[in-house]
Amino acid sequence: MTQPRPQRILVVRNDKLGDFMLAWPALACLKSAHPDNHVAVLVPTYTAPLAHACPWVDEVILDPGDGAPRDQRKALRAALRAGGFDALLTLFSTPRIGWLGWRAGISLRMAPATKWAQVFYNFRIKQRRSRSQKPEYVYNQELAHALLRALGQDIPATAPPYWPLPAQARDTQRQRLREELGIASSAPWWFLHPGSGGSAVNLSVAQYIDLVVSLNGLLASPPKWVITHGPNEEATAQGLVDTLEAHGIEAWLMPPRASLTDFALTLAAADAFIAGSTGPLHIAGALNRPTIGFYPAKRSATPLRWQTCNAEERRLAFSPPADDASATDMSRIDIGAVARHIADAWPSRAATEETP
């Protein structure tokens, strides 16, 4: 059987960090379908460092954004036209990107069949994402599968980790933290990210304190806690460290990192990662680290819709009781019950772990 020719594919996911990380399973699919497929991504400056780190990406093109000056928009259109792309896959459709792909002369343009922006696409896939019946990364994979069928390529089998690292990378990150913080390696290291970056609801700091105190009393091997933070969140993270230490619990503040990619790679050292539905949680998922996520109960942001893309046995998720009136009220989460659930479930998760 003749091998289909390689394709030059442009994928657009030009919004938040968590959204981009949930595109990695689709990128893995497109890159793995043919050894010579060229996969480019159009991303904003913020997520570009991780796009460069993605093993499934051959080329990173910066999107100047909706409000960019005319000369920048024109330069982007010229760059896409010069790229000679066979196909455009827009994972989240907007009129500007649809118009851009059409003006750039990309012959096969695929996107979800939503909003009036679909008029710019000649392949449209009905997904009804607003119903939140599947994880976001699965919706993305389905679009990638449809594109490969349209291009005449077979759909490859893919599985976590969607950010595979060299075997020694986790050991390197753990050794680095040992030297920086003096953490003993004999106990599990659990990372906790109390911030949200303003993009998602999260537990309060007081709830996280209650959770850590409860878990340390329930787990057979109480963890060492590393508190991570994003830009402008260091004071909150340090306050959490100080409060935990006042409770007699060993905790450390994640040291400053030189870049977003450096921060992301440090998460490989975690034996578990706890956060709201934020970019760091989805980085940990792509690395196939065990994750514990906290989500609102509203349909557009459920634990199913924004599920991390790690292996099923490596993720737990919690949200308040489903109630339209209080779907985002995270104070309704029973922290004691959550801690007991985690403690009961964790032995089966720890059994799959390869702590150096």
UniProtKB/TrEMBL annotation:
GO terms for cellular component: cytosol. InterPro entries: Glyco_trans_9, LPS_LOS_Heptosyltrfase. One of its GO terms (biological process) is lipopolysaccharide core region biosynthetic process. It comes from the Bacteria. GO terms for molecular function: ADP-heptose-lipopolysaccharide heptosyltransferase activity. Keywords: Glycosyltransferase, Transferase. PANTHER family: GLYCOSYLTRANSFERASE HI_0523-RELATED, TETRAACYLDISACCHARIDE 4'-KINASE-RELATED. This is Glycosyl transferase, family 9. It comes from Chromohalobacter israelensis (strain ATCC BAA-138 / DSM 3043 / CIP 106854 / NCIMB 13768 / 1H11).
